[in-house]
Amino acid sequence: MFKLTGSIKMINATVQVSDRFSKREFVVSDTSSQYPQDILFQSTQDKCSLLDQFQVSDQIEVSFNLRGREWTSPQGEIKYFNTLEAWRIEKVGQGMPTGGPSPISLDPNDFPSDKGPAAGTKEDDDDLPF
Q1: I need a labelling partner for 102 at 20 to 30 A (CA). Which of 7, 19, 69, 94 fits?
Q2: Which of residues 83 and 123 earns the better pLDDT score?
Q3: Is 98 a member of any domain?
Q4: Helix boundaries (H) for the chain
Q5: What span, in angstroms and rounded, lies between the C-alpha atoms of 130 and 114?
Q6: Is 14 contained in some domain?
Q7: What 3-state DSSP class applies to 45?
Q8: In this structure, are residues 1 and 65 in contact, taking their beta carbons and an 8 Å threshold?
Q9: Running DSSP on this structure, what letter comes out for residue 12?
């Protein structure tokens, strides 16, 4: 599973490829580096409707899977294709603070304890190894 945050540049209409398969493509502009990238994603089947609530220029976070496949041409030439298949799309800031997830502290001294004084104090210097 991968995630990308950016702004929607383009949303195509849903295309019915066959009786049992539909897809919808959209482009997300990733401007997090010096060289912005326009990245093509696709949603398939029931996930096509995920894009109905979004508009061009919305800031989103896309959760997606990387798919790869092999194809042999009629001339016998083998080619490989990749697809970024979106399965969740959320507006930036929806469900979490706008700045992203809050930092996680792994320092045990930052957590309150019901067992008396905080770790690292003089009263904690006994002979127990923990």
Answers
A1: 7
A2: 83
A3: no
A4: none
A5: 16
A6: yes
A7: helix
A8: yes
A9: P
121 in any annotated domain: no
Report the relative pairing of strands 2-11 and 78-91 from DSSP bridges.
unpaired
Q: Residues with Cβ < 8 Å from 56, sequence gap 6 or more?
A: 8, 9, 10, 11
In a domain, 106, yes or no: no
Buried b (16+ CB within 10 A) or exposed e, 70-92: eeeeeeeeeeeeebbebeebbee
**21 Cβ neighbours under 8 A, 6+ residues apart:** 44, 45
CATH code, domain with 64: 2.40.50.140
Q: How many domains does the chain have?
A: 1
Question: What residues make up the domain containing 41?
Answer: 2-91
- Tell if the pTM clears 0.70, that is, is over it: no
The span from the CA of 75 to the CA of 88, in Å, is: 38
